[in-house]
């Protein structure tokens, strides 16, 4: 390959848009962030939320996220939680596609949160 072609290809790859993604974190990471006032988004149903949720978590069911995404702040990290981590991964993906830059999916969800012995509001 000619040097000028190689340099051109390297320049193009450096300018290519990077695919934004979310980060999966443990409940221990969430607990530390939550104690510092992090924004926690619970994407379960209202009935699940009423059974117990991370203190201070905002409820926005996954089914409503697309229509109500403007309620989620873009200017701070968003920690997304559900029951087991599946719906929160879907929600995290939606948020990233909508331009959110600091999205954290909580691995294991509320199941892991309660197993770790962390408090839940009812």
List the helices and strands and how they pair.
Elements: H1 3-15, E1 23-25, H2 27-35, E2 39-42, H3 46-51, E3 58-59, H4 62-68, E4 78-81, H5 86-97, E5 103-106, H6 109-115
Parallel strand pairs: 1-5, 2-3, 2-4, 4-5
Folded structure, characterized:
The protein is 44% helix and 14% strand. It has a single domain, classed as 3-Layer(aba) Sandwich (Oxidized Rhodanese, domain 1), CATH 3.40.250. It has 122 residues and is an alpha/beta fold. Mean pLDDT is 89; it is low at 5-13. Strand 2, helix 3 (46-51) and strand 3 form a beta-alpha-beta unit. It starts with a helix and ends in a 7-residue tail after the last helix. A five-stranded parallel β-sheet has the order 1-5-4-2-3. It comes from Deinococcus daejeonensis. Residues 1-20 form the signal peptide. This is Sulfurtransferase. Keywords: Signal.
